[in-house]
């Protein structure tokens, strides 16, 4: 039943025939993940492209001083993976942690390659996903080098309103590259205006 959600997700990009739906049923593995459980830790090789069916995840790195830096959040119908580690098969510098009890569908690299080699539909679907991810990454980089912290926060509110009941201000501040105290100052300023 959980794979039906993924099939619907894919069909919003490109229609699938019955054979392609059956391929999805076979290729993806369902997994339940508890809150605070990791699906990737620094030093591991990322072996799965992960689709979130239920729940919330964060992907982050820990710098040399022990400070966490959130790179991505993922909720229902979002993907999460350390793409660099996934494709290079080199150890990851990242962690992916469940922020809620979650259900995910995982696709192994070798199964993804089979999907691409044997069916052009999945090749096109994943190309669309990759292009969207690249656009979002470029947008975030440009925003980080050209926007104030307040502008980044307001944009985060606009882009991701569904995160605010699920992600703490500490996590949001880390994602924005500011301290929780500075985020509190920004929020107070916005509330007064």
From TrEMBL:
Cross-referenced CDD domains: CAP_ED (cd00038)
InterPro entries to which the protein is assigned, alphabetical: cNMP-bd_dom, cNMP-bd_dom_sf, RmlC-like_jellyroll
Domain Cyclic nucleotide-binding positions: 31-119
Record-given protein name: Crp/Fnr family transcriptional regulator
Organism the protein comes from: Chitinophaga rhizophila
């Amino acid at each position: 039943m959980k794979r039906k959600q993924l099939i619907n997700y894919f069909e919003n990009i490109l229609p699938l025939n019955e054979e392609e739906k059956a391929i999805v049923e076979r290729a993806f593995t369902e997994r339940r993940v508890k809150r605070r459980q990791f699906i990737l830790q620094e030093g591991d090789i990322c072996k799965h492209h992960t689709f979130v069916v239920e729940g919330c995840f964060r992907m982050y790195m820990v710098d040399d001083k022990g400070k966490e830096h959130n790179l991505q959040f993922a909720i229902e119908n979002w993907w999460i993976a350390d793409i660099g580690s996934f494709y290079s098969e080199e150890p990851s510098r990242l962690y992916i942690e469940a922020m809620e009890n979650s259900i995910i569908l995982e696709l192994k690299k070798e199964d993804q390659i089979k999907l691409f080699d044997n069916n052009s539909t999945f090749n096109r679907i994943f190309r669309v996903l990759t292009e969207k991810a690249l656009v979002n990454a470029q947008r975030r980089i440009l925003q980080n080098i050209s926007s104030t912290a307040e502008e980044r926060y307001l944009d985060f509110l606009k882009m991701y309103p569904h995160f605010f009941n699920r992600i703490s201000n500490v996590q949001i501040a880390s994602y924005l590259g500011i301290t929780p105290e500075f985020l509190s100052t920004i929020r107070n300023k916005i509330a007064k205006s």
